[in-house]
Amino acid sequence: MSVVGARPNLMKIAPFIHAIERFEESAGSHVKIINQLVHTGQHYDQNMSDSFFEDLNIPRPDYHLGVGSGSHAYQMGQTMIEFEKVLLASKPDWVVVVGDVNATGSCSITAKKHQFRVAHIEAGLRSNDWTMPEEINRIITDRVSDLLLTPCRFADENLKREGASAQRIERVGNIMIDTLEANREKAASMDINAVVSRNIAQTPEENKTEKARSSKARKLTGEDFVLLTMHRPSNVDEPQTLKALMDALQEIAEKYPIVFPIHPRTRERLKEFALWDVIAENKNIIATQPIGYLDFLCLNMRARVLLTDSGGLQEEACVLGTPCLTLRWNTERPVVLVENGGTNILVGNDPEKIRNGFKQMADFPRKEHRPELWDGHTAERVVSAIVNRTK
Ligand code: UD1
Q: pTM score > 0.70 for this model?
């Protein structure tokens, strides 16, 4: 039984499900794997969830828990209550969770309390920042998981330091890169202007008039644009922080158009803090709704610089070679940093650091970096690791 809850889970579960199908075909009739997919419903919008099922060819969930939005306690409590019912009805051999969202933490605890085996894909990442809800989810999930499937050596080291036994740890690589590799060619052949126009056409709110929308869309004739995503509570939930970030971004927008797909959390805060018009009225900030997987990949391949506070996007930028400024003070993914061969620097949310970092990275050459085992075949190793432990 595999679990998804929020957008970043979907590109991690897709290759796992497809690898099960391939495994069954190649192993013949003596091995049968039945995978039931559970969607907790933490993310529920078409463009935060459904479009990814379509783009990534993920089958419809067997169970939809319909948890929706709410506080952390509400989301996790409600997920536990609903997940327990399907778990006890289905009695799976394994519960497979991915990443670090609330669905990951709550479903792994629920499964372990009922003595089901838990496998965690993307185990061992640590920001050592306990103010991040994701860090708490990572730590509790790893503590209760029987099988810790890790993306890199840093993750193995973190787990060993915390006392995990070597038998529980298996390094498999980065499963999200399987999805990237499977879609890379298709995204590369897409027309960048068509991607932007298609997304901007649906954004009357972000770009006030039809005229503003078409003039913004025309700006992306070349490849000199910056791509931005931002949604962490530490960046968007405090008015002063968000205002300072918007000021820094406006400076960058004087030089390069910024494509900014806006996360629902950020949208709410921008409005609440009266910063919405900064975006709607800036002719160089091309705001859109959250955009689909393939469209985003196409943008990430061509952007001059990516600015983000996402976890997964740092990894995609690394493999694509996109220079990346991470709008955080720490990362649980040090393997992507410049000092480790990647394309990423940490600039936090300090405007001065962002300004200087941008100067440094704007002329940084695209340089693909592929950490060990980020080879597009991680999901096969995940399936083998689980099958080998299922007797
Ligand atoms: C969650 C994850 C985070 C991940 C992010 C990616 C946790 C603790 N956090 O944060 O790790 O990087 O997803 O998107 O699990 N909303 C919608 N439509 C949706 C989903 C949410 O409008 O489909 C709104 C909610 O009403 C809420 C806000 O977006 O106000 C935040 O959603 P929530 O799921 O609480 O957390 P994220 O910030 O998305």
A: yes
